[in-house]
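Q: Could you predict the 3D structure of histidine kinase?
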Amino acid sequence: MKLCLLLLFFLTFFEANAQVHLYPDSLLQNLQTLEEKDQVLDLLRIAFYYAQENTDSALNYVNKAEQISIKYQDTLGEIITYRIKGVVFFESNRPDSTIWYYRKGRALAELAGQDLQLAHFDNNIGMYYWNKGLLTEALGHFYEAKKAYDLEENLYDKAMVSNNIGLIYQSLGDFEKALTYGEEAHDLRRAIPDSIDIMTSLGNLAFIYTELEEYDKSDSILFESLKISDALDYDIEKSKSYSGLAGNLERQKKFKEAESLYLQAIALSKEFVNQSHLMNRYAELANLYLKTGRFEEAAQLADLSLLISDSLQVKSANSSALMTFALSKIALRDQEEGFKALEDYNKLTDSIFNAQKATSLSEMEVRYETEKKEQLIALQEADIAQQRAINRMQLFISAGGFILILLVGGLWYNRSRYRKQLEIQDLKAAEEKNRLKAVIEAEEKERSRIARELHDGLGQSLTAAKIFVGSLGKNPDSEDEQRSKEKSMGLLSHSIQEVRQISHNLMPKKFEGQGLLQALEEMEELINKTHQIDFRLTLASFVLRLKKENQVHLYRIIQELVNNGLKHGDISQIELSIQENNQTLSINYRDNGPGFSEKELHNSTGIGWQNMTTRAGFLGGTIKLNPSDQGADLLVTVPNSS
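A: Sure. Here are the predicted structure tokens for histidine kinase:
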């Protein structure tokens, strides 16, 4: 993941009214003038400064801050202490300790009702998961933080979390969303202003424009960042700018100029304590050497990148370096190492990504937008309640004889209440519109995800097979030649199976050819083949009159019911029956899992229930939860009409 470790310039650790300028000498002098109980924040600022330079010193200061916080029962100081301690362990590549302190501090912040601190912890935990390559979990925590920051005045916090969300979308290849959040973060940082964070935003925007093949615009942004980094003598951002400019030259096939800039970036990165920068630079130059046929050098640099990523436990960074290493080794006819690296690549990408992730990301985005609207509605309703109380008091005071004022006040009150109610209705209507739009967009995102999976996963495997097959024929009767053929066939068979799986996830084969009922029979057959679930499908005799596009909606509703049962319930049996009564289709779903109540269903955090009810609404139908002693029992009814 390029730019995965833009480490702690995205994090905020102190309150908005205590902007941090980390000069340890002045902070140490200031400590001498403070009473012990007032030293906590300055001690934590010093610890934060030393986090990347000297772990022992950082822990010494943060432990002292923790002791003072506990001694004087300073709950807020103790909460921030856990966050800074997590940062110190993050910087010293101790992930288990990092997440332990983040979770401990978050629990204390929740107990103390410190909503802003909860948001800070969600942002930090999001960075931890992102560093692990768990994009779904990372984005979920970033959206939780953004909901809280949206209600705050601190521009630094708002910019930070928007920047982080934009970087997640960069990693997912959704560059339109990445650009939206990246520009939002950049505008906020210019308003602060903060030169270092401005450089960070410029680098992110340049990367997006590179992916959009707008190289002139990307170069212009990177040169602007270089000017700032030169003025501040800030080599980290200078290294990233060199890397970005090199990437633009590489894409324009100016390989010699690109190599020179990559080497300059590597020379700078070797001086950094945080080796993640060097890891990324090695991987970038290795890929350049692979493209230009310098396979030995490509393999060496990719191996160096992998060694660093293993030491940092940065799971996601292994992916591109592994593929570069594998292709280089195959080109060098080192078949054993090449195919082992390919197998490791397939295992890694399988563990990082699964078919539910794109849906989960869409769910998080919809949940954020929905809850944001609900917050606005709650504020509006609170305003109405407050206004009613004020109006009642005004009426009570004026009731002594000011009848005219009473009438005018009553008219004003009714008009104000009516206007507020209209505003709430508009907000609710907009919320429902966004929810419907998100359901439709989720399908488009799924198609985009599969296109990326074909390009990045299957495409890379086929590229490896092409390189390998191209080397056949030199020693027709040799043992290596036979082994090469077998390996090639294995790669191609794996690719064919992957294509079939992707195609089936998009739409069952029988649906395209025959329709809904045959697709459900295919679903029954596939699930029963697992020998773990007894799937019983009962189809009464009737004529299905739904249009094909409406059959798709009904199939997705049933698919969601079955998938939820398989995913969330400890079940061994599913019963699905469909019958017609008075031109109405009744679809009854039952399983023998733990079941759930109607309250649990409506309070669920996912959009699965919303998705199903929305689709049923499109068809003019409903979904109802039936009472059941065991398992889930739901009834879907829709008109059986075109």
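Q: Anything worth pointing out?
A: Confidence is low (pLDDT under 50) at residues 1-22, 351-359.
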